Amino acid sequence: MSDKNRLELFREKRAEQNEKVMDFDHLGIKRFFNMDTNTYRDGALSSQTKELLGLTASAVLRCNDCIDYHLEQCAKAGSTKAEIVDALNVALIVGGSIVIPHLRHAADTLDFLEEEGTLKTD
Is 103:92 a contact under the CB 8 Å cutoff? Predict the structure, then answer.
């Protein structure tokens, strides 16, 4: 049994899998990854706002990996727990009750981020 929590294991697996994907050395895949990265940079909207939007979309689309990724990015961008919870509330309203299991997943991930000291609690 690993001493690592679910979020730590996710980070490791994601890094390993991204490396495998990049090893394909495919121009279209590289361009998509580049476009994705650039989308979340400051523009007319701040990177913090864009990450909250990404989190909301991820919850509505019910992708736990995406939720974890965007929760980390929200924390890095300076979002507080209250701001993140407010964004998750929007996801719940837009997506309906089917989002609830993913809201629970997000709550656990927020706990991990708080334990690490990565998340501002307000």
Answer: yes
Could you tell me what percent of the chain has a pLDDT over 70? 99
Contact 30/22 with Cβ under 8 angstroms? yes
Length reported for the chain: 122
Among the residues of 61-99, which ranges form H helices?
A: 64-77, 81-95
| CA distance linking residue 28 with residue 102, whole number of Å | 30
Distance CA 3, CA 111 (A): 16
Taking residue 96's Cβ as centre, other Cβ atoms within 10 Å add up to 10
What's the pLDDT at 44? Answer: 98
Measured distance CA(94)–CA(24) in Å, rounded: 36
Q: Which two tokens stand for residue 63?
A: 């992708």
Question: CA-CA distance, 47 to 101, in Å (whole number)?
Answer: 27
* The pair of three-digit structure tokens given for residue 84, joined into one six-digit string: 């993140």
Nearest Cα residue to 55 out of 92, 9, 30, 97: 92
Entry pTM: 0.94
